[in-house]
Amino acid sequence: MQAFLARRLLLLIPTLILASILIFAIIALAPGDPARMMLGTQATPEEVALERTRLGLDKPLPVRYAIWIKDVLSLNLGRSQSNNRPVASLVGDAFPNTLRLALLSLLVSVLLGFPLGILAAVNANRRIDAFVTALSSLGLAVPNFWLALLLIIFFSVQLQWLPASGIGDANTSFLASLKYLILPIIAIAVSNMAVFSRYVRSAMIDILSADYVRTARAKGLAERVVVGGMRSETR
């Protein structure tokens, strides 16, 4: 197990390097001049050239990539063009809310995905299984951003039940700010729930056909006891 984890960690290094090269190439080769965009269309060529020099855009691509990697590793992410604040501080300010949203979405995905997967596996090749499978396929097919827009249009614009954006007052309790999290949690959890349900269904169908499960059933164990044991096997 330790050797497997060590190999996976070693494989992570070239993957990260390749991903960084691709990300930098996409940003560097994107159409448009960042200096011209920052200064506006009224800027003179001399002003644009000075701004390119200040930003380091006049250097060769390999040099710019090395500087970019060094800045990323040192958490020097530059300053935001919209509010002139350090990007690292903006990320730090948003991190607690992002973490809370991610954990709650994961919790909802697990609490709904696992029971749906078990229900589909126990009723394999029946209507319930077909319904759960179709539901999970739909959850995987629908993009998160599109689902989020639909939720905003229906629950925020039409029904006006939930806010379309925002995080609420930082001094309020968690329950009071929960209404701001409902729509984002649903938009994120749907695809993860579909993944969990499909995984649990596939794993439980394989286990339910094992010899020791058939033996347990032949000895007269109740189905809920058999299924409860299978749940522990799939974890």
Describe the protein in words.
- The protein has helices at residues 2-29, 34-39, 45-55, 61-73, 87-122, 127-141, 144-158, 174-177, 182-208, 211-218, 223-234.
- It is an all-alpha fold and 235 residues long.
- Helix 9 crosses helix 11.
- The mean pLDDT is 83.
Poorly predicted spans: none
Order of helical and strand elements: HHHHHHHHHHH
Largest sheet: none
Strand content: under 5%
Q: Give the N-to-C terminal Cα separation.
A: 18 Å
Shape category: elongated
Task: Give helix % range.
Answer: over 70%
Radius of gyration, in Å, reads: 26 Å
Mean pLDDT: 83
Number of helices: 11
Structural class comes to: mainly alpha
Count of strand segments: 0
Which descriptors apply to this entry?
235 residues, mainly alpha, 11 helices
Short description:
With 235 residues, this protein is mostly helical. The protein has helices spanning 2-29, 34-39, 45-55, 61-73, 87-122, 127-141, 144-158, 174-177, 182-208, 211-218, 223-234. The longest helix is centred in the middle third of the chain and has 36 residues, at 87-122.
List the helices and strands and how they pair.
Elements: H1 2-29, H2 34-39, H3 45-55, H4 61-73, H5 87-122, H6 127-141, H7 144-158, H8 174-177, H9 182-208, H10 211-218, H11 223-234
Helix pairs in contact: 1-4, 5-6, 5-9, 6-9, 7-9, 9-11
